[in-house]
């Protein structure tokens, strides 16, 4: 939490010289690092089916967007409406991050999530999941990846007797050897991330 506060303060100070009000500060917070809005995985996947275009990075287009009234840009209203006009079918496809349509407003998304939460709490519906499953997201759950990918599973099993990991001196290898089969059979929160880090360190040390 402290790191988040420090990160926000850093961006706020960066925009202090040219932001005139809280609205400007909020927009700067959203757009000061545009590249993070275009993940490499998304661009790569799009490149497999069509020639990529970069019109979205054109300064004229961005300047036009910034010249519009804030009421048009709030909650991405103009972008959502444009998508509805250009391709209604695409606008109706749920996104991986929310499992809801990209043209929905923030209020409608929250309302639907609240309804699902109520149904799940009352057990009146078997479709009460608020978030999309791991398989529906851009990044699958790493714990499940280790259970489904043979090569990753083998790499995780090899960690049980890894001399490289053991040489670090601060990892309980007996406990690791006990926990890995459990994680592979029934992944827990964070197990996939830990296995990924350990395999990365193991391979790094072995190639030194």
Distance between the termini: 36 Å
- Shape by Cα distribution: extended
| Secondary-structure content class | mainly alpha
Number of strands: 0
Oligomer: single chain
Number of helices: 13
Strand content: under 5%
Q: List segments where confidence is low: pLDDT < 50 over at least 5 consecutive residues.
A: none
The percent of residues in helical segments reads: 55-70%
Order of helices and strands: HHHHHHHHHHHHH
| Rg computed from alpha carbons, rounded to a whole number of angstroms | 23 Å
Average pLDDT taken over every residue = 82
Q: Could you explain the architecture of this structure?
A:
By secondary structure, this protein is an all-alpha fold. It has a domain at 140-206. Helices cover 60% and strands 0% of the residues. The chain is built from 13 helices and no strands. Helix 9 (142-148) crosses helix 13 (191-206). The longest helix has 17 residues, at 106-122. The mean pLDDT is 82.
């Amino acid at each position: 939490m402290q790191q988040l506060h420090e990160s926000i303060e850093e961006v706020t100070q960066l925009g202090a010289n040219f932001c005139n009000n809280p609205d400007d500060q909020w927009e700067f917070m959203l757009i000061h690092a545009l590249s993070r809005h275009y993940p490499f995985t998304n661009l790569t996947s799009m490149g497999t089916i069509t020639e990529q275009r970069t019109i979205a990075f054109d300064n004229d287009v961005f300047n036009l967007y910034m010249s519009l009234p804030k009421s048009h840009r709030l909650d991405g209203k103009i972008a959502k409406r444009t998508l509805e006009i250009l391709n209604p079918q695409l606008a109706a496809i749920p996104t991986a991050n929310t499992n809801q349509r990209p043209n929905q407003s923030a209020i409608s998304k929250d309302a639907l999530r609240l309804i699902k939460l109520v149904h799940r709490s009352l057990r009146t519906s078997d479709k009460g999941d608020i978030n999309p499953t791991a398989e529906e997201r851009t990044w699958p759950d790493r714990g499940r990846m280790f259970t489904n990918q043979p090569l990753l599973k083998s790499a995780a099993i090899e960690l049980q007797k890894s001399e490289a990991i053991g040489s670090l001196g601060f990892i309980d290898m007996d406990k690791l050897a006990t926990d890995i089969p459990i994680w592979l059979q029934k992944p827990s929160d964070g197990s996939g991330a830990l296995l990924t880090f350990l395999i990365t360190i193991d391979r790094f040390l072995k190639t030194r």
